[in-house]
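thought: user wants a sequence for this fold. calling inverse folding tool.
action: design(structure=
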């Protein structure tokens, strides 16, 4: 994240008036003892020399400030950012007390480094109180930088907004919405003042809007993000989810619900045109969105094409959904055809039961329904065997196949649901009465 040169020089001193100059012994030690160690990248050896020098000089002197500056940079070279904090703050404290010791750029660089280091330490800490302490320090330093730098940069503005947002959400159970609002304001200012805003501005603005529960605002930002980064699948997924969320939140307004589902559909199809979101699961989700928007014809066409091509997972439930979709558009025979096609791959009685259900709803198709129910109970694998035997009994009764109907009723009675079904008892009584009448008719014929 951070880094700096460790060259031993006084180039960081203010050029207009200049610093008081290093103590002769200090200068000699730096040149003769420490410079070779720095050149050899012997950081620990250099730190030992630095600590030895610091022990001999006035703690408020230019020597201490200059050597502390070097010490902080050595720690940066070691990637020991926490270790760099104390010497850099020592240098800054002395520099603030003596304005001619360092030039403005050197002071600003140190301030920025400290803001970065505290931020990094804050994000690394698992202790909430420590996080907040580090974030507060980081925010204070970057605010100072923004107030004193000759020109604001996108990086610094975004950095400050990131600090504010992380402060706000450090405790997920108690998000500071005022800080979220402040972070959002910083981001919006950065967007307005940048010709080509960095992607991070949009990411952070999106996070702030989501914290505020502004789903519509989130969708607007995501639309900009997918335009800027059309190959980012995550952005497309988030945009689609936002529209679906908006659709679900307008349950009382059917028009709004359908509009937002249509936007979600449009989002997925735009992504698919770019080669994204084309997994079998994605394709199935597209079908369900069309289905939920009431566009059964389009949903059916996509589902059938997907099942045939393999773009949608070919399982029994998806074939059953396809059949149901055909029913929704009034194509009952097509629904039966796809179920028969599915039964070749999935020889389950449940498919035949569904076929029987469709035939039962059609005129003059009782015989076909009876055949389907017979196949269903023969194959087994039924979700509700009680219902299958009941429907078999009904159709057999209508076709005057009373013995089959009686056998089906007996099997329905043997299920746990059968004992509680009052309708079953009435049907059983009707079947038994029909059998009695049939037997009586036979007996009368025999006597005559």
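)
observation: tool returned 448 residues.
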């Amino acid at each position: 994240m951070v880094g700096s040169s460790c060259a031993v020089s006084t180039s960081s001193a203010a050029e207009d008036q200049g610093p008081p100059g290093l103590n002769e012994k200090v200068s000699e030690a730096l040149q003769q003892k420490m410079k070779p160690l720095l050149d050899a990248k012997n950081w620990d050896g250099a730190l030992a020399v630095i600590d030895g020098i610091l022990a001999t000089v006035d703690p408020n002197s230019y020597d201490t400030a200059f050597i502390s500056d070097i010490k902080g940079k050595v720690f940066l070279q070691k990637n020991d950012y926490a270790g760099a904090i104390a010497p850099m703050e020592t240098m800054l404290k002395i520099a603030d007390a003596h304005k001619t010791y360092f030039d403005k750029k050197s002071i600003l660089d140190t301030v920025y480094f400290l803001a970065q280091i505290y931020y990094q330490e804050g994000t690394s800490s698992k202790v909430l109180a420590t996080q907040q302490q580090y974030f507060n320090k980081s925010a204070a330093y970057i605010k100072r930088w923004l107030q004193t730098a000759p020109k604001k940069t996108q990086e610094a503005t975004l950095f400050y907004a990131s600090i504010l947002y992380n402060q706000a959400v450090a405790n997920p159970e108690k998000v500071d919405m005022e800080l979220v609002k402040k972070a959002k304001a910083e981001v919006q200012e950065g967007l307005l003042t940048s010709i080509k805003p960095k992607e991070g501005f949009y990411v952070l603005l999106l996070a702030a809007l989501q914290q505020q529960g502004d789903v519509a605002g989130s969708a607007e930002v995501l639309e900009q993000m997918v335009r800027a980064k059309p190959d980012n699948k995550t952005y497309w997924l988030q945009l689609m989810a936002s529209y679906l969320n908006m659709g679900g939140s307008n349950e009382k307004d059917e028009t709004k619900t359908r509009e937002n589902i249509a936007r979600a559909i449009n989002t997925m199809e735009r992504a698919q045109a770019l080669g994204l979101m084309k997994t079998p699961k994605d394709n199935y989700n597209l079908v369900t969105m069309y289905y939920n928007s009431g566009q059964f014809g389009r949903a059916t066409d996509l589902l059938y094409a997907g099942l045939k091509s393999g773009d949608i997972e070919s399982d029994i439930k998806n074939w059953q959904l396809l059949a149901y979709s055909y029913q929704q558009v009034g194509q009952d025979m097509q629904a039966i055809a796809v179920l028969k096609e599915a039964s070749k791959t999935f020889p389950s009685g449940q498919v035949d039961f569904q076929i029987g259900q469709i035939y039962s709803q059609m005129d003059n198709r009782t015989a076909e329904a009876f055949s389907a129910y017979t196949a269903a109970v023969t194959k087994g694998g039924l979700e509700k065997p009680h219902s299958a035997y009941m429907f078999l009994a009904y159709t057999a009764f209508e076709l005057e196949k009373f013995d089959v109907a009686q056998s089906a009723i007996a099997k329905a009675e043997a299920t746990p649901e059968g004992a509680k079904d009052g309708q079953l008892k009435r049907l059983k009584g009707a079947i038994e009465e029909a059998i009695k009448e049939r037997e009586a008719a036979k007996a009368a014929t025999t006597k005559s």
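thought: summarizing for user.
answer: Here is the designed sequence. The chain has 21 helices and no strands.
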